[in-house]
Amino acid sequence: MDTQSIVILDFGSQYTQLIARRIREQNVFSAVLPCTASIAEILAYSPIGIILSGGPSSVYDADAPNADPAILQLGLPTLGICYGLQFIAYHLGGKVVPASKREYGHAEVTIEDPKSPLFADLPPTIQVWMSHGDEALELPAGFHRTAVTSNALAGIANESAKIWAVQFHPEVHHTPLGPQLIRNFVFNLCGAKGDWTPSHFIESTVAAIREKVGKGHVLCALSGGVDSSVAAVLVHRAIGDQLTCVFVNNGVLRKNEFTQVTQNLRGKLGLNLVPVDSSERFLAKLAGVTDPETKRKIIGREFIAVFDDEAARIAEQSGGVDWLVQGTLYPDVIESSSVRGPSQTIKSHHNVGGLPETMKMKLIEPLRDLFKDEVRRIGRDLGMPEDILGRQPFPGPGLAVRILGEVTAERVAILQEADEVVVSEIKAAGLYTKIWQSFAVLLPVQSVGVMGDQRTYANTCAVRAVHSEDGMTADWVPLPYEVLKRISSRIVNEVRGINRVVYDITSKPPGTIEWE
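and the corresponding structure tokens:
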């Protein structure tokens, strides 16, 4: 790393990604690593500070997520949050026990040590969000209490060891003054410069790509979405004509997307683009498959197979293709591999979860440390047009994960028509750029209907629209009834094969944004 960073060790909290976002909002780079990361992996990020996240376990559980206690001896400013406080107390000789009064939700914290630099510019009492059932009953040697609630300890510190900890969650919106506490840690205690900006990222990434690629030739997996488009422009800025972009029709794109994206990327971005129609090849591989993970992995493997074929063809002209560019983002990385070791993978994305171990090309993923909104800021600094940057996210496996059950050409065609209605009506209502994602899902459910005095038995379509900052959490959008009415009416009347429309009002968590 050529920039300052704060490393966050994840013990399984649902809020861990929010910690990273709050730090990045201060123009300071932050990286989330599993709590099991080695000291070498942590130091590879050149950290100026470490944060230990919360988590649902108890430190004294036999299967509690654990980190190398040596991280507390690195001499780096360290902040423990919730479980992180208990980890510090437990591993440095204190005593952690089940609390007599568990605290969940809103609480009032009294700051007992107003001189603590962690609480600089904070009032004597603050409103916070608590989520814990344990408490540090006895503190390790050298530590003192810095904050309390009416029920329990809320903060501890050992300034000489550069260790601070709070029992509450400063990263969530329910702790209104939490951002100030995080700023105090990042700037006052860690000495961050706050110079991690889009222009800095572009400059350092372009330099790194040039050094890595040398005179080699690069193939870019281009989908036409925000992520792969920004990745392509970034790599193109670094190596110019050494980049060839390949846009594959995998048979599960949106209606007319193959033609429109090809024209858009050639005309507006000036990229050397090779369109490849492999729709029949993909659909043949997906025949008879209903398991969501299997679908994703099949599409991932087939993508790589197509790129290998194209690389061989392009190699005849360029002398060889050594690298593959993908628009992998941070949420893809986090959700595709457990950051806690023993926890469950939520889902695998084709661009990180379906890659074969013996892939011929080496990967370049210039955006893998970024969230979606950060990618859009990078794109704007690169001078990319807003109609490309403003596109809603579209999953790598495409409509395959919006068709529950088997993916067939007929079912793809039905969903393409329904999805076109949803997108066009959302745009007509002026809501497209205000919503994170809006789309249709084809369900393996048929129901009875009546059309023209005749009984029908056809498919059900679900409509989904969500608000989100980065895809890690999401809330369903209360679309205006008139918009829902037009969407439903048009789908039932215009799309053969669908006679019922339902609206998904599930947030993430507990659901996911996509249905598969």
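(Above: one complete record from the training split.) The first helix runs from residue 16 to 24.
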